[in-house]
Amino acid sequence: MELFQHTANQLHKMLINKEVTCEEIIQSVLNRVEKVDENICSYITVTRDSALEKAREIDKKIINGDEIPPLTGIPVAVKDNMCTENIRTTCSSNILHNYIPPYNATVVERLNDNNAVMIGKTNMDEFAMGSSCENSGFFSTRNPWAQERVPGGSSGGSAAAVAADEAVLGLGSDTGGSVRLPAAFCGIVGMKPTYGAVSRYGLIAFASSLDQIGPFAKDVSDCAWLLSAICGYDPKDSTSVEYNVPDYTTFLNNNVKGFKIGIPKEFMGEGIDEKIKKAIEDSAEKMASLGAEVEETSLPHSEYALAAYYLIAPAEASSNLARYDGVRYGYRAEDVQDVVDMFKKTRSQGFGPEVKRRIMLGTYALSAGYYDAYYNKALKVRTLIKQDFDKAFEKYDLLMSPTNPVLPFRRGEKIDDPLQMYLVDLCTQSVNLAGIPAISLPAGLVEGLPVGLQLMGKPFDEGNILQAAYTFEQNTGYYKNKPSM
Amino acid sequence: MISKSDVEHVATLARLELSEEEKELYTKQLSAIMEYFEKLKELDTDDVPPTPHVLPLKNVLREDKPGEQMDSEKALSNAPDREGNYFRVPKIV
Lengths: 485, 93
Fold this sequence. Notes:
- The complex is a heterodimer.
- Chain A has helices spanning 8-16, 22-40, 48-63, 106-113, 156-163, 180-186, 220-230, 274-289, 305-320, 339-350, 353-366, 371-395, 418-422, 429-434, 462-476, and strands spanning 43-46, 75-79, 117-122, 169-174, 189-192, 212-217, 260-264, 293-297, 398-402, 438-446, 449-457.
- Chain A is an alpha/beta fold.
- Chain A has a domain at 3-256 and 439-480: Amidase signature (AS) domain (Amidase signature (AS) enzymes), CATH 3.90.1300.
- In chain A, α9 (305-320) packs across α12.
- The two termini of chain A are 15 Å apart.
- Chain B has a domain at 1-42: Histone, subunit A (Orthogonal Bundle), CATH 1.10.20.60.
- Chain B has helices at residues 4-13, 20-37, 72-75; strands spanning 82-83, 86-87.
- In chain B, a hairpin with a 2-residue loop joins β1 and β2.
- In chain B, α1 crosses α2.
């Protein structure tokens, strides 16, 4: 077995036992990137030199007998919408093609504090708007399981990198499913924490009331490790919540006895591929056989979530993206008549088609005469969706559903029909509207392609989600399926 | 139904300059999307409060003391155009 194939847990043990050096680990992963990334196209920037330099520093620390936190020397892929000091951060947009942040996002600082090693910055749908990674302003990432298919989006680069062993862990951001969907499509674990659990400082904003950074990993244990490292209060983010972050690895118990799990029937009906539905029914049976009480339930307003989401997210985006004006950073159009002309030309030339579409949609929904009919209406529907979850969690510890309503689709298949593309987020968006945590983990293969099981929990109840996920994983072994590349 | 002139108006508000082709495309696509949103009208929400944010947000206050600052050279390092310690833009009036 090659070093790049291991999990973070395994590598940590090998480092502690001095069976391997950090430089060997990083070199192994960099070689892997060199070998496969021309096919997978996960990375926009590979930070080869700084990764190797850091690895050598870490090896010195290990020789000196310094403390070795769990993520020490572990190669991490970081989505290119998290600011990295002196390392280009593009959001996969031409409007930020030359942006070199003068500061680190808080999550990046946390990786550094834990001695993790960043391998590079990964491709994404431009400004995280998309479900296929085809909306990148630069190139499309491929699914390691079937390269003619999409890896899911928007954090497709980080997900594909972890699935293809081009990184051991990854960071993505999830506004409507952008961590969970690509995790499901690429056959790995991905988690969206509770809104407010992870600092958004330095995360380039898409929809601020929905955005949350989350981990990608090859198994649930690694996911718990990375989650423990990135959660916690940050005074630089006014929506960051002060709470006692548990060591999430203490929840890795192989036991779901007494867990009450509801399956919202709305997530198993129209729009869900029958074969995926079957896989999730099998997963439910498995959970029940392991001692959980599993039954059907209802989130009655689910059918309105997609419409509410696609009003709220673009409305917030149209406001957030007003900052790209060519004045302070990023692309500036040339040959302009005056400052307004500069704004218009800069934005029109810098943004790609999906970003423009969402800015238009959001601006329309917020414009005079339409605010109450669309934006405010969507916020009221959001209340109803959140109340559905509150009510369900009075009875259930967890809810389960498919993550992906359809199998990873072919590149180009949905790109010309925005509404069809939006429907891919059917099972994931309401989680962001309600602000609750959810994980996606492998639930087996259908026609040789991965299916994701989504487990949703109460706010700040990531621990129970991880315990149920760990139990499912240990008793099914689906995480052992790997793409043949 | 969204008309081409709606699209032009919204583009002006959003400071976007659209080609004729884009105007046609967005008129068609945004109409289809907005039509889908009509679904929300099925719900009676008169007595439902809006949820702009899931957290009970509060003002975050601190003492009025200077904290860490970024030096101006660094802050200006990405400027497309500058003059001294200022961002430079084309004429405004």
